[in-house]
Write a structure and sequence with these properties.
single chain; alpha+beta; 6 helices; 40% helix; 17% strand; binds zinc ion
Length: 143
């Protein structure tokens, strides 16, 4: 039994090809993917778009994937498993995304501050930096 099958069963959910496929695809990539990107990476026969959306919403409600808003119309998704901790930088010009693993995240102080001010226990965060990638900077005349 694959590890995704096991995880889904543990949560009382049936493991389907669509659900497992999404988890595998998101784990294989470091940048968050749109539902369209996810569908494109599926081997044939590809699931229909509605199925991809439905499975993404189920997997987010189970906490296995997380949706990320990167100032685009469409949301992107990434794996939300334990030990996966990434920050991202997004180019405002062309939309290029780079994600980087963070070994030491320095946001513990902010999380403590949130707890003090609002009483929230923070379990997770999503951090995006926005800017211009090297190609876009070249086009802009390297500002
Ligand atoms: Zn760019
Ligand atoms: Zn962090």
């Amino acid at each position: 039994m694959g590890k995704h099958t096991e995880t889904l069963r543990r949560m009382g959910r049936t493991s389907t090809r669509g659900r497992e496929g999404i988890l595998r695809i998101l784990e294989e990539t470091s940048i968050p993917l749109s539902p369209k990107d996810i569908r494109e990476r599926f081997p044939e026969p590809k699931p229909d778009t509605a199925t991809v959306y439905r499975n993404l919403s189920l997997l987010s409600s189970l906490g296995l994937v997380r949706s990320v808003a990167l100032h685009e119309r469409c949301r992107r998704y990434e794996a939300a498993g334990e030990g996966i901790h990434r920050h991202r930088v997004v180019c405002r010009g062309c939309g290029r995304i780079e994600a980087f693993q963070v070994t030491t995240c320095h946001l513990a102080g902010i999380e403590a501050d949130i707890r003090r001010r609002f009483g929230f226990k923070v379990t997770d965060h999503s951090l995006e930096f926005f800017g211009s990638c090297p190609e876009c900077r070249k086009k802009e005349g390297a500002k």
